[in-house]
Design a protein that fits this description.
This protein is an alpha/beta fold and about 140 residues long. It has 4 helices and 6 strands.
Length: about 140
């Protein structure tokens, strides 16, 4: 495990065994903090060639429209170019989170047909899926 980002609002690590960048949102963020986290995530995709983005958004707070649009227009296209193939999210059933996730998922699907987006109720189930994806990619190669 390699630490990519560590602040009071979010922690990002690279998990080489599953080619995953794993972001744990620890609390809500300002738009500037949100962008800072995702700029580090993008750099992680570029530096490590990660295939999966795993995000635990249970404590993320509400993401504003401008921040979401910035993510969709700036970070997602660049992460796709850098090799991102999976977006896995650990989330609770919250109406605001569902709205945010649905909007992001729709935009991702417009930009790429190869992205696999899945939601999980726990870290354990999400990490298991990350490992399964890297095994699947290894068997195809």
């Amino acid at each position: 495990m390699t630490l990519v980002y560590n602040e009071r609002h979010a922690r990002v690590v690279y998990l080489p065994e599953s080619s995953t960048l794993y972001c744990t949102w620890l609390k809500g963020t300002t738009p500037e903090q949100y962008r800072d986290v995702f700029n580090h995530i993008l750099k992680g995709f570029q530096d490590y060639g990660a295939k999966t983005y795993l995000s635990d958004i249970q404590k993320q707070g509400i993401v504003g429209t401008e921040s979401r649009k910035w993510l969709e227009s700036t970070i997602i296209p660049e992460a796709l170019k850098a090799g991102m193939r999976n977006i896995f999210v650990i989330t609770s059933e919250d109406a605001f989170k569902k709205f945010y996730l649905d909007r992001v998922k729709n935009e991702v699907e417009k930009q790429s047909t190869i992205i696999n987006t899945q939601y999980f109720p726990s870290e354990e189930s999400a990490l298991k899926a990350c490992k399964a994806e890297v095994e699947k990619m290894s068997s195809v190669a």
